[in-house]
Amino acid sequence: MSAKIYQCMEKIGNDIIENKEFLTDLDREIGDADHGVNMARGFTEVLAQLPQDEEDMGKVLKKVGMTLLSKVGGASGPLYGTAYMKAAGAVAGKTSITLLDGKEMLAAVIGGVKMRGKAQRGEKTMLDALEPAFDALTKAMEEGKSTEECLEAMCQAAEEGVEFTKTIRATKGRASYLGERSIGHQDPGATSSLITLRAIQAFYLNNLK
Amino acid sequence: MVGILIVSHSKKAAEGIYELAVQMAGEDHRVLAVGGMEDGSIGTDAIRIKEGIEKTNDGDGVVLLADLGSGILSSQMAIDLLEEDIAVEIADAPILEGAVSAAVQAAIGGTLKEVLEAAELAKQISKLE
After folding, report:
1. Do B37 and A82 touch (CB under 8 A)?
2. Mind listing the pLDDT tens digit for each residue in A159-200?
3. What is the ipTM of this complex?
4. Which CATH architecture has domain B3-121?
């Protein structure tokens, strides 16, 4: 399993880095045009420092969080740093996880981002992708859907959440200075959250299914 | 003596504010600046802020002044990362005026609460009246 958490982080990192320009362009519309650059810088360092032979997923994810804290630079540093450290806490000591663990990680991530960002759903942030994703995952699990179906439901909801961010105004972060003018643009943080969830789904389909 | 930590996205801004604060505080001070990222680019780094808090604290606590947006988020994160029990207050104040005012209050032996109040008072001082 140790190789797999490493590979999964590699997939997430590479997808974020690949979307550097896209995320930066989104951030240019309503922010300070650094989200893609910052995230790519953070994940480049994550990939360089990722312990390949560490079995404990909690330790791997904590390392990811600490690296993001010191290398991202913008608000997404403490936000994603907190997210990965909370996810780490949910799977501390584990060398493999179930879908239920995954759900608990997502719950911990959402709690951490809310606490750090003092934000709620509906404020044009990461939470507008993550919370619907969590709700859809929970519902699909309760309905006894397969892991594949659960992950698709989760990602679908995150995607709809990103679409929803186009319709609302930002009240948090740099985009809040724009007020009404932030409407019509999708939130970069919600988008990088969606990219992360899609990367986890793709990793599952390609490696674990 | 209460420590003062200046946190800015920009290395130059942090150093400049440090320069002004220290000029007012005199030689014996515990003011420290953490600006930008390790490689000199614009940003804030929670790990270096945490180290700054540890360095400037001598047991009397630290008043932290930060600039925009992630300056506050990274500072709050840094406080959560502290392993030692250090009293840290983030001042709700303009970074430059707050740092100067806090540094003076700390230099004359103010408590953590007094230094924090001095920093936050800077928010209310009118420059034109």
Report:
1. no
2. 999 999 999 999 988 888 888 888 999 999 999 999 999 999
3. 0.84
4. 3-Layer(aba) Sandwich (3.40)
